[in-house]
Design a protein that fits this description.
By secondary structure, this protein is of the alpha+beta class. The chain has three helices and five strands; from the N terminus they run αβαββαββ. Strand 2 and strand 3 form a beta hairpin. The chain starts with a helix and ends with a strand.
Length: 143
């Protein structure tokens, strides 16, 4: 799913083409490679959350949501990061338009905005995380 989200963002945000990566371990990536030199984005898995399960004779079903984060990284050359946040505002809108209501092929749901928040300012960069969740369902035949 991460690659599908990445492809969707690259198609809808041409200024970020070639600068969007998937990252399972973002912290290690930054430690090994350091901060990117230009504005970029990372698509990060943020986990699953199960809902109430149903079991009928021979069938187990459970709805769940999967959350994916889009971490925008903007180079910041001011202490407060306000200039970088101002530059990110239109990009945040483009990310919302690209993913909200879109399905990467799931039969059950579409991406819904969960939240967006400043994730930090440091090392000359501003980090802004936008979280999207998509609903799906497990259906397992019990033997």
């Amino acid at each position: 799913m991460l690659d599908a989200v990445k492809d969707r963002l690259e198609a809808r945000l041409p200024e970020f083409a070639g600068r969007i990566e998937t990252a399972v371990d973002f912290t290690r990536l930054l430690k090994d490679r350091g901060l990117p030199q230009s504005s970029t984005a990372f698509v990060i898995p943020l986990g699953l959350q199960g809902q109430r399960a149903n079991d009928a004779t021979g069938i187990f079903s459970q709805a769940y949501s999967e959350t994916v984060g889009v971490l925008l990284v903007a180079r910041s050359h001011d202490q407060t990061g306000s200039k970088a946040l101002g530059q990110l505002r239109p990009i945040i809108g483009q990310v919302l338009e690209a993913l909200a209501g879109w399905s990467p092929g799931s039969d059950f749901g579409v991406f819904e905005l969960r939240r967006g928040d400043l994730a930090g300012v440091g090392g000359g960069a501003l980090f802004y995380m936008i979280e999207f969740s998509i609903n799906d369902q497990l259906r397992i035949t019990v033997q």
